[in-house]
Design goal:
Elements (H helix, E strand, L loop, with lengths): L1 E7 L3 H13 L3 E4 L2 E4 L4 H14 L5 E9 L2 E8 L2 E7 L9
Antiparallel strand pairs: 1-3, 1-4, 2-3, 4-5, 5-6
Helix pairs in contact: 1-2
Length: 97
Amino acid sequence: MFVSVILDMGGIDSAKKVSTILSRYGFNKVQRACWESKVIDGNQLLLLKRELDSVTDYYDIIRIYQFPINNKFVITELCRKKWKKMILSDKNKKGIL
């Protein structure tokens, strides 16, 4: 599965910790605040989210974009220390562009 992580960190300390964790999970930094992986699986992603949750604070925002999950696009966001998830699918069932 392809996973992209976008960071909007409130402080330098949490940014360094998150960067270290993402590197350990095999993510590559592709832009200043964007990390990507093409090899992470669902179980590793759950562990990653737990670790990210433990090193972030109230002012940090992390968005995780995942594709495909049952042929759907999933966006997960950590904002104000709460995880939210949005699942997008093609309602016309014509496939993905």
